[in-house]
Amino acid sequence: MFQCKDVAEEASNYLEGDLPIRKRLGLFLHLLVCSCCRNYLQQLRQTISTVATLRPTEEDATDTKALAEKLRTLSESKPR
């Protein structure tokens, strides 16, 4: 029988359908009796859904060459 710690370890695999049938069944049976783990799984599903919906866009205007040169200059000027 699965324990709560097992659910936490296997939750992602469970949601992605990557668990062998025996483990999937064991986890399902645990979820039938454990409301805390059901809540945890529901929160995980909601988080995944929210992140997938929002998909923040990154606007990167950083001049990486200038930044690398500045870091190189700083590292060379520090006493070792």
UniProtKB/TrEMBL annotation:
<dbReference type="InterPro" id="IPR041916">
    <property type="entry name" value="Anti_sigma_zinc_sf"/>
</dbReference>
<protein>
    <recommendedName>
        <fullName>Anti-sigma factor</fullName>
    </recommendedName>
</protein>
